[in-house]
């Protein structure tokens, strides 16, 4: 299978195809990555790969007390990810296309990217100023009955939204059109649900769209039932992960 080599950006969250990823870049290794991406002609995609961290720190130890007062500062592209960075990351990630890369006066960057397609991580190179990776494209197989499953997921997702809004004592925005293409539905719902990172990663690496939708249907019914029986809990008690779609 054809592979592609791209800069690698590990995060503590999961990026899905079609979802927007805002980034505040301040570590030198990722600043170097952005400077390299800016060399790409404006009419070509500025792509990098996002993978979820399995074992390690999103921000490397740079000084005593940041974040662990007992750890020595680390330097280099693989700082915070151990001797073998490949083992520190989940193997299925997502390519991101940086639509906006804006350098601030202090040398940090504001980046707005969008997830495009899934990839499988095969190797990691830490010899340069930032991590790069060899990646295999991971096609999205629709699977069986994806269309019918998407309809069921959308119905359950609307109920989930209503229950969550009620438990949080917030109003629910209405009138927004939800997509009906099964693959898009599966990624949107996976990103929007309040789930922990391992569960979101499981959804990202589902073998096909139908399998992802079946898993989401089970999750939506379970989560909606929990929210229904615990309507007075504070919002933070209802979530099992960050509220950001990133």
From TrEMBL:
Residues 6-224 form the Lon N-terminal domain. Pfam families: LON_substr_bdg. PANTHER family: ATP-DEPENDENT PROTEASE LA (LON) DOMAIN PROTEIN (PTHR46732:SF8). This is LON peptidase substrate-binding domain-containing protein. It comes from Streptomyces olivaceus.
